[in-house]
UniProtKB/TrEMBL annotation:
It comes from Natrinema salsiterrestre. InterPro entries: 6-hairpin_glycosidase_sf (IPR008928), 6hp_glycosidase-like_sf (IPR012341), GH15-like (IPR011613), Trehalase-like_N (IPR045582). This is Glycoside hydrolase family 15 protein. It comes from the Archaea. Keywords: Hydrolase. One of its GO terms (molecular function) is hydrolase activity, hydrolyzing O-glycosyl compounds.
């Protein structure tokens, strides 16, 4: 039953970890995520929603204590006093359960957001977050704190009781918390204490700009429908041995796909790099970026990952998005990154009133990368388009005209220095990976000509492709290092991106220069735990950064392609040791502590895991084929 309304402490949490006691912040890997294809909420193991933007991922935040524990705002449900806790997803869904155990009993909070297509109802009915509280053994006393802070906590909202709960208003927005539990209200917050006995259930529903009634039977039906939706969508293989990601890490690959699906915007098909901003790459440092946008290269890598797991519609949606970017203007106007709704202006600014995760300032919104020249993007774009045609997508006359323009542009622009895949904030260089991806853009256009009735200036394209190849092999490979290098200017430095050379067919995987690059990366960029740094040298920014997760998976792929199956499998298993308990990954990993760093969950990292698992599956299949041939 509900007790008299009170205001619980704004720091509702369990005994927690040493890091949490030290800083007031939870480790990044102690968060789960739920979403509705428009936005995503991060929910800690203490039952606190610490980050959520409404109505879209790139909108301003409603809860942001992830970036400022004191003033950011949260929506917390957790036991009074000490407790133990763990989280898990309902199998093959994005429905999250946080389980609490106290001295007197056990309770579970089930968090989910309805998704379009999974429920019937009014327009925007999915813009809600449902929290179901079940008491399994009691009594359990719970503290509930509703502390909304609109517009990145720049103002304190008006919070007042309503006929069905609490409503918060500010900056032209409104958030409605409906619940049968009575709340006390004070200074922009609402809170109460609730005691549940065994088998008792309570629902709390947070609606954006609309009040959603608590109707237990209807709420349960919505939950059942959401669970059914996810299980229908999630990859399932009747024949586990024939699955492209067969093996010990099959379930991790499926979880990565489920996480990626949450990052795909329903209206546009755009893929968000991560649902957070400014989670630091170095605790206390300034490498804090806003990743709530659509990077073309991230999206291109996603095509194979999703399509190979049977999610062809998402791959085709990406195809349409790529073509829209190709056709929106001259090639010089194509950006590395766009808003999820196609916005091309993403001005970068700092929110100086927020202290940042573990005091890692500045907190940034927007991203200046939209103004950069990154030549590899053209290759990622055309490779992605070509890859999607394997799954039934068709190139229209208009799309081919745009592709031709891009390839013609690349034939003349590939020699120009750029800032590269790693978006350095320093002087442009002739980055080897950028040149390779310019080669790939031309190569895939030539393949399209060979595979279709479309025509192009193939002689000029052949000449340009050959010239790029010759130049990269002459200036981008070091005989002294026995490896491809970072740039023509930095010919004594390595770049993990060159591991992708055999993946785009620039050279075969058994080429001695590819083998040498793999060995050099293993020797100079890789830790004993299998964590791989992005590159050697400077990028124009102060401070350190963690090892880059996707680079470790690129190394897995390169090893598998080279036939070094045991090394690839061992490395893959080593890297998977750093996956969060829920199967999620951030952008980077601290080499010393193993803690996750950077924005979370990171699409690039989850894609890397899937493609690494696919590479191991292909390797195992080829190995079995070779064995069968030998037996014969």
């Amino acid at each position: 039953m509900a007790t008299d309304p009170i205001m619980p402490s704004p720091n509702v949490q369990d005994a927690g970890t040493e890091q949490e006691e030290r800083s007031g912040y939870r480790p990044i890997d102690e968060y789960g995520v739920v979403g509705n294809f428009e936005t995503v909420a991060l929910i800690g193991r203490d039952g606190s929603i610490d980050w959520c933007c409404f109505p879209h991922i790139e909108s301003t935040s409603l809860f942001a204590c992830l970036l400022d524990a004191e003033r950011g705002g949260r929506f917390a449900i957790s036991p009074t006093g000490s407790f133990e806790t763990n989280q898990r997803y309902l199998d093959r869904t994005n429905v999250l359960r946080t389980r609490f155990e106290t001295a007197s009993g056990r309770a579970t909070v089930t968090d989910f957001m309805p998704v379009p297509g999974a429920i019937d109802g009014a327009e925007n009915a999915h813009r809600a977050l449902y929290r179901k509280v079940d008491c399994e053994a009691g009594p359990v006393e719970l503290d509930i704190l509703f502390e909304p802070r609109f517009d990145y906590a720049q103002t304190e909202p008006d919070v007042e009781r309503s006929s069905h709960g609490v409503v918060a208003r500010g900056d032209g927005e409104a958030a409605f918390l409906t619940s049968p539990v009575g709340f006390g209200v004070d200074k922009g917050c609402a809170g109460t204490s609730l005691t549940l006995e065994a088998d008792e259930t309570r629902w709390l529903v947070l609606g954006y700009d609309r009040e959603i009634p608590v109707q237990p039977d209807e709420n349960q039906r919505i939950l059942d429908d959401v669970v059914a939706y996810w299980r229908d969508w999630a990859h399932e293989c009747p024949d586990r041995e024939a699955c492209p990601v067969a093996g010990l890490h099959h379930d991790l690959a499926v979880r990565s796909a489920l996480a990626l699906k949450l990052l795909i915007h329903d209206d546009t098909g755009a893929i968000c790099a991560a649902p957070t901003t400014s989670l630091p790459e170095d605790i206390g440092g300034v490498r804090n970026w806003d990743y709530r946008y659509n990077w073309i290269r991230d999206s291109a890598f996603t095509v194979q990952a999703l399509a190979e797991l049977g999610h062809v519609e998402e791959a085709k949606e990406y195809f349409e998005l790529c073509l829209s970017h190709c056709s929106r203007g001259p090639p010089t106007d194509i950006q590395p990154v766009y808003g999820l709704h196609g916005d091309d202006d993403l001005p970068e600014r700092t929110l100086d009133h927020l202290s940042g995760y573990q005091d890692s300032a500045p907190v940034r919104v927007g991203n200046a990368a939209h103004e950069q020249r990154q030549l590899d993007v053209y290759g990622e774009l055309i490779v992605g388009v070509h890859e999607t045609t394997r799954y039934g997508a068709e190139i229209t006359d208009r799309a081919w005209a745009a592709i031709r323009d891009i390839v013609d542009y690349v034939c003349g622009a590939w020699e120009v220095p750029d800032v590269g895949i790693w978006e350095v904030r320093d002087d442009p260089q002739n980055f080897v990976y950028s040149k390779v991806m310019c080669w790939a853009a031309i190569d895939r256009a030539l393949r399209i000509v060979n595979q279709t009735d479309y025509e192009g200036p193939v002689e000029r394209w052949h000449d340009a492709r050959a010239e790029i190849e010759e130049t990269v092999l002459e200036k981008g490979y070091s005989d002294d290092l026995g490896s491809f290098v970072r740039s023509f200017e930095a010919d004594d430095q390595l770049d993990a991106a060159t591991l992708r050379i055999p993946m785009v067919d620039f050279l075969p995987p058994d080429d001695e220069r590819v083998r040498g690059t793999i060995d050099a990366v293993r020797d100079r960029l890789t830790t004993d735990e299998g964590l791989v740094d992005r590159f050697e040298g400077d990028d124009g920014l102060p401070g350190e950064e963690g090892a880059f997760v996707v680079c470790s998976f690129w190394l897995v792929n390169a090893l598998a392609l080279a036939g070094r199956d045991d090394e690839a499998r061992d490395l893959f298993e080593d890297v998977c040791e750093f996956v969060s308990p829920l199967g999620l990954l951030s952008e980077e990993i601290d080499r010393e502590t193993g803690e996750l760093l950077g924005n979370y969950p990171q699409a690039f990292s989850q894609i890397g895991l899937i493609n690494g698992a696919l590479a191991l599956g292909d390797s195992a299949a080829h190995g079995a084929s070779r064995s069968g041939d030998n037996d014969g």
